[in-house]
Structure formats: structure tokens, C-alpha cells
Specification:
2 helices, rod-shaped, mainly alpha
């Protein structure tokens, strides 16, 4: 009985939680994307190239 009630409640609120979950996943992906730019060889070469011109 309690399991059935909790399952029905979860089915009703899955759309609300899906928005929060997708936003969280997107935020984490952007965070790791910007953190990984430091170790990319192409970005290191670009930064060396731009510092020589100035």
C-alpha cells in the first residue's frame, strides 16, 4: 500500500524533477568542460602564441 502510494507520487512529480536533474547535469558538464581547457594542448599553444604577440 505504501509502496503503491509512493510510486504514484513519483510518477506525478517526475517532470518537475527531470528539469532539476537535467539542469544539474548541464551545470556539471559545463564546469568540467571549463576545467579541462587548462590541460588541452591546443589551448596551451594558443595562449603561448597570444603572449608572444603582445
Amino acid at each position: 500500500m505504501l509502496f503503491k502510494l509512493s510510486y504514484q507520487n513519483m510518477k506525478k512529480s517526475i517532470k518537475d524533477y527531470a528539469i532539476y536533474f537535467l539542469t544539474l547535469v548541464l551545470g556539471v558538464a559545463i564546469f568540467y568542460m571549463f576545467n579541462s581547457l587548462d590541460s588541452q594542448q591546443a589551448m596551451l599553444q594558443v595562449s603561448r602564441f597570444t603572449t608572444r604577440n603582445y
